[in-house]
Amino acid sequence: MTPREQKAALRMERLALRDSMTPEARIEASLRMLRHAGDAIEFAPGQVISGFWPIRSEVDIRPLMARLRERGARLCLPVILDKKTIVFRELVAGAPTVETGFGTTGPGEDAAVLDPDIMLVPLSAFDKAGHRIGYGAGYYDRAIERLRQKGHMPRLIGIAFDCQEVASVPAEPHDVALDAMLTESGLRIFGLG
Fold it and tell me: Which of this chain's residues are annotated to bind substrate (predicted)?
């Protein structure tokens, strides 16, 4: 099996496990993530943090994002522009959101486009070394590469449930490792020690 085929199999397996969680279990796990990371994610006031509104059975990080805003973060959400590109539009309290593609909602076209300093990254699977498997469309990989080409190096924090962890993610040249991983068990920082 090629790395791409291995990733596809792991993606299906881990998303099926995530889908099998009850809504109550997902809510409780999401709230535990808030307790683990709401005050632990380090940033300076005014720094930009990208999050996401949950789709399907994803973690609901809206309470975490609200806490980060209370601590002084500027927030943004990904918006799909075309089949290859996402940008991050500023999420201003009270501003309306619109459908933004791939089942997501986010700020409308009048919202400012921001370059995140920290990205809270949804994913389908991850391993203990900080490698991730996305949803297969490559939006985040391309967005991260575009930011890096501009000289902007956002910290990448993966967001998932414990059941999405795998023993090892097959590596491909375009893959970008995470700096940290947040699950209901806690916030893990990679590359230390």
Answer: 58
- Is 151 annotated as a binding-site member? no
Assigned superfamily of 3-189: NagB/RpiA/CoA transferase-like (3.40.50.10420)
Residues 6+ apart with CB under 8 A from 37: 64, 157, 182, 187
Q: Please name the amino acid found at residue 117.
A: D
| Side-chain half-sphere exposure of 74, counting CA atoms within 13 A | 13
Q: Is 139 annotated for ligand binding? A: yes
Which sequence spans correspond to the domains of the chain? 3-189
Q: Cα(126)–Cα(169) distance, rounded to whole angstroms?
A: 7
Give CA separation, 138 vs 2, 5, 26, 83, 187, in Å.
17, 15, 25, 10, 24
Does this model's pTM top 0.85? My answer is yes
Q: What distance in Å separates the CA atoms of residue 130 and residue 155, rounded to the nearest whole number?
A: 12
User: 133 a known binding residue?
Assistant: yes
**Does 108 belong to an annotated binding site?**
no
Q: What is the pLDDT along the chain (193 residues), one digit of tens a residue?
A: 899 999 999 999 999 999 999 999 999 999 999 999 999 999 999 999 999 999 999 999 999 999 999 999 999 999 988 888 899 999 998 888 888 877 788 899 999 999 999 999 999 999 999 999 999 888 999 999 999 999 999 999 999 999 999 999 998 877 889 999 999 999 999 975 4
